[in-house]
Design a protein that fits this description.
Blueprint lengths: L12 H7 L3 H18 L4 E3 L3 E4 L2 E4 L7 E4 L2 E5 L4 E4 L5 H6 L7 E2 L3 E4 L7 H12 L10
InterPro entries: YdhG-like
Protein name: YdhG-like domain-containing protein
Organism: Brevibacterium linens ATCC 9172
Length: 142
C-alpha cells in the first residue's frame, strides 16, 4: 500500500494560523477555524505543514483499492492565493448542496474560495456537518 504523504502532526494549529500571510488570509483562516470547531465539535489537528483538519475517516481509493489510509473528515488550508476547503464535495448529499455555496471553483479533492465573504456561511456550515459525519469508506472485496 502506498502511504499518504500528508499525515497528522503535533504542530500547533494556533501558531500556524497566526503565521499565515497576507493578513486577510490569516483573518479568514481564524474565522474558518471558529466555524469548523463549532460545527464539528472537534479540536483541529495539523495534517502536513498546511492543512487544518477536523475529525478523520479511513478512505479507500475507488480506482486502486490497495490505496487507502487516514484523512481529515473535513478541513481547510488558508493558502496565499485562496482558501482550500476539504471534504465538502465528496459525498452525494454535499455535491447537491455545493452549487448553493456561492463563488468557488473545484479542484480534484477540494473546493477553492478566494474570499470568505463571497460564500454563504449557512451553506458552508451544512457542508461541514455533512463531511464531519462521513463514515469510513467500505472495505473492498479484494
Amino acid at each position: 500500500m502506498a502511504e499518504n504523504k500528508t499525515q497528522p502532526t503535533d504542530a500547533d494549529v494556533a501558531a500556524y494560523l497566526d503565521s499565515v500571510t497576507p493578513e486577510k488570509r490569516r483573518e479568514d483562516g481564524l474565522a474558518l477555524d471558529s466555524i469548523f470547531r463549532e460545527v464539528t465539535g472537534e479540536e483541529p489537528v495539523m495534517w502536513g505543514p498546511s492543512i487544518v483538519g477536523y475529525g478523520r475517516y479511513h478512505y479507500r481509493s475507488p480506482v486502486n483499492p490497495r490505496n487507502h489510509g487516514e484523512w481529515p473528515a473535513t478541513g481547510f488550508s488558508p493558502r496565499k492565493s485562496q482558501l482550500s476547503l476539504y471534504g465538502l464535495k465528496d459525498l452525494p448529499e454535499a455535491a447537491k448542496l455545493l452549487p448553493e455555496l456561492g463563488k468557488y471553483t473545484e479542484g480534484a479533492g477540494c473546493v477553492y474560495v478566494r474570499r470568505l465573504e463571497n460564500i454563504d456561511e449557512a451553506v458552508l456550515r451544512r457542508l461541514i456537518a455533512i463531511a464531519a459525519a462521513r463514515p469510513d469508506d467500505p472495505e473492498s472485496a479484494d
